[in-house]
Amino acid sequence: MEYQDVIELAKRRAIFWPAFDIYGGLSGFFDYGPVGVLIKDNIINSWKNVFINVEGMVPIDSPNITPEEVLDASGHTKVFTDYITYCENCGEAYRVDELIKMKDPTFELKSYDYMVQRMQELDLKCEKCGGKLSKPEKFNLMLPTKVGPGKGKQAYLRPETAQGIFINFLTYLRYFRDTLPFGVVQVGKGFRNEIAPRQGLIRLREFNMAEVEVFFDPESLIWPGHYNEIFNDEVLLLPNDGREIRIKISESMENKIIKIQPIAYFIGLVQRFLINIGVDKNKIRFRQHYPEELAHYSKDCWDCEVKTSLGWIEVTGIADRNQYDLKQHSEKSGVLLVFKKKLDKPKYITRKRYVPIENEIKNIYGKEWKAVFEMLKNLEYNDKKPIYRNKEIDENCYRIEIYQEEIKTEDVIPWVIEPSFGIDRIFYSLLEHNLYRREESGYKVLGLKPHIAPFKVAVFPLMPKDNLDLKALEIYRMLKNSGITAYYDDSGSIGRRYARADEIGVPFCITIDYETLENDTVTIRDRDTTEQERIHINNIAKKIKESVEKCMMSI
RNA sequence: GCGGGUGUAGUGUAGUGGUUAGCACAGGGGCUUCCCAAGCCUCUAACUCGGGUUCAAAUCCCGGCACCCGCACCA
């Protein structure tokens, strides 16, 4: 169905709607309602099942608010702050630094005044119409905040959850007992002060993301997942040379369209995940970024795009972040985010060290001999004479020994591959792909798979009287007690209740009728076929649980 | 951010200066042994916000906000 159909249903059935409505609203923010939250949580749970349970990665939950240093190191404060100028005639927007660099490649953004001065000196005009350009405006795509009282500490709402993973690399390396590769996942919110949010859940200023950072030994870029299971999967690839090809994962690597195994693997995995939760398999493609499109941290990136009535929208990005982030944080924090890689053969380095001579030191320094002894023993060799209490130590107190130091490991910065998912966009695509109209009656049906559906079953008394309602409530409680999300409805005719359940994607409806009172059987009706069968009430929970479990992805 | 369009019950809409602001669906209550939005009775419920013009504004004008379409932006 189309965008408008989804929005209409979403508002009417409390799935999602624009936030802050009674105060006039604020563009780029949405509320998820009772039905929407359940669906969204089910998507996230399926996602966690794939990455945590199936792939063996581990989670982290790090703060939304991030101090400035972290984002200085990651490059976000710099890259996210642009100076923009607009043509006062035609409205065209330009980034000031790029405009100046076209005429003066040596230009560096030292200060606002200098930038304005250069604009005037170079007599910059609108590229399109030659119109006058406005004064540069600062535009920061991150949302700033202050932490603490008074002046406070400059911080930002995180633009991605990834940094929380990178800065904790050493903790996770230890958790994985110093073995690479491993993956860390985070589900949480990201914040970007978009210039013009549009199209509902597609471009939000506060959005749900699920990110994966996989850390590799740079010399062994292979994810030991289930490659043999997915390498026969076909995917639609759009490499940045302009081709569009449907190809097997394995062939895409043989043909060097995808250069490294983890990207190929995650492309296959992402496709399996999306199909598993109910995205139309004929509306998925993977598009490689053009060099100029790449983020500041990335060397290669493949977007997973899903086709909707709004066009192809990016729902996942698989980025080769290489060593960028760990390198940056090592440099700025002073903590080496590296792993100690065992060398095939130990290396030997010829070094010198001081060997203290105890008796001689005792003779000269008396009671203080121990301090001098220890100092010499631990002192790194250098060409200057060692000094104690501002005086050179007598040469007889030590000798200089030449020795071979054995080096068994070297510091290696891991290589990072990042599959990053936009949950809200996936959520929207899922609704659009699964919403259809019943031919006979014309009302809407949300054909969500059982593991994604907000409720697994709806319970109806045929009529709310003659004890049918009491019996129905008893069965409803029984199902809830066995861990099934169920809902009860006795309002209006039975057909109306089926329709209401269909509209929010409930896969099964059971109806309690006069026969139930006699033999404890109910009708269970399948949403997609509308067919019903009679089953005993003791078998309801089992049947529903099986249909849900059958959907959970496994490899 | 620029240009254009739109804003009426929960949803979809009618209403072009004076209407008890109409209709349909949905929703609540009731009747009907009622299995696919059945029928009947009944009730609830709306003019995006602020200012202006006018005796009188949902309606005309200005501004804010939101949404839609294009452009730009989207690390």
Architecture overview:
- This protein has a 9-stranded mixed beta sheet with strand order 3-10-11-21-16-15-14-12-13.
- It folds into 4 domains: 3-64 and 158-326 and 415-424, Bira Bifunctional Protein, Domain 2 (BirA Bifunctional Protein, domain 2, 2-Layer Sandwich); 82-144, Herpes Virus-1, CATH 3.30.40; 342-410, no CATH class; 438-551, Rossmann fold, CATH 3.40.50.
- The model has no long low-confidence stretch (mean pLDDT 90).
- Strand 24, helix 16 and strand 25 (486-488) form a beta-alpha-beta unit.
- The two termini are 31 Å apart.
- Helices cover 33% and strands 30% of the residues.
- It is α+β, with helices and mostly antiparallel strands and 555 residues long.
- Helix 3 (68-74) crosses helix 12 and helix 13 (358-365) crosses helix 14 (369-378).
- It binds one RNA strand of 75 nucleotides through helix 1, helix 4, strand 5 and helix 17.
Give the strand tally. 28
Strand percent estimate: 25-35%
Please tell me the total number of domains: 4
Which CATH C-level class of the largest domain is it?
Alpha Beta
* C-alpha Rg (nearest Å): 32 Å
- CATH topology-level name of the largest domain: BirA Bifunctional Protein, domain 2
Q: Could you say which overall geometry the principal axes of the C-alpha atoms support?
A: globular
Q: Helical amount among residues, as a percent range?
A: 25-40%
SSE class: alpha+beta
- Segments where pLDDT lies below 50 for 5+ residues? none
- CATH hierarchy: architecture of the largest domain: 2-Layer Sandwich
Question: How far is the N terminus from the C terminus?
Answer: 31 Å
